[in-house]
Amino acid sequence: MTEDRGQITDIQKAEKSLSSDIFVTASVLLEYLFCPRFIYFMNCLCIDQNEDKRFKVLKGREVHDGKERTNIDYLRKRIGCVDKEIGGYMASEKYHIKGIVDEVLTLSDNTMAPLDYKYAEYKDTVFRTQRYQSVFYGLLIKENYGKEVHKGFICYIRSKNLLKEIQITDTDFIELQAMIAEIIDITQKCYYPKGTKSKTQCIDCCYRNICV
Predict the structure, then answer these.
(1) Which of 27, 89, 97, 177 could make a disulfide contact with 14, Cβ separation 3.0–4.6 Å?
(2) CB–CB of 154/120 below 8 Å?
(3) Counting Cβ atoms within 10 Å, is residue 189 exposed (0-12), middle (13-18) or buried (19+)?
(4) Relative orientation angle of helices 2-17 and 170-189, to the nearest 10 degrees
């Protein structure tokens, strides 16, 4: 009972702070997960990352545009998919999020799930950024379709369309709401947040010369 009350309090705190017209996208969430200071540099100082020059970013956009997407109907059937929608734009005023989900799957148990294509190899684990991107899309689906979302799927293009399943819990949704609240708070108040705890990420960071 105490744990439930704690979760409710976390949700209320997150929703209370979302009193703005700012909408967070999945790509902004990924930057935040890499390092919260990305939000400060991008949204407050408006310093561009020049990400369009990155090969993987461009290649990933091709995949999302459908230029290299391979038919994976046999994989959908294996996970109990009975229907799908491709490239659906969704937004939620309640949670201040928006985005385009690669595929919205309806499963045989009447729940729904996001399917996200990654131009990447599977490295023996689903990274935190990839996991929370699925949670992000799951929350969009839950809000827009009014269906339960208990899992998400990632298709790794460079690992021969390997499909990995991600379990999504209520706790994941609560943690995501807290992240969204902090992203909006940084953007509105323009305060300098704490940097990433993983200092190895700083080596290849485009903001390393101005980050103190």
Answers:
(1) 177
(2) no
(3) exposed
(4) 30
CB-CB neighbours of 163 under 10 Å: 16
What does the pLDDT look like over 5-58, one tens digit per residue?
555 555 555 555 445 689 999 999 999 999 999 999 999 999 987 754 444 455
166 φ, ψ (degrees, to nearest 5) = -120, 125
Q: How far from chain centre, in Å, is Cα 192?
A: 23
Residue 185 sits at φ, ψ, to 5 deg, of -65, -45
Q: Looking at this protein, which amino acid is placed at residue 127?
A: F
Other residues' Cβ atoms within 10 Å of the Cβ of residue 116 = 20
Tally of CB atoms within 10 A around 150: 16
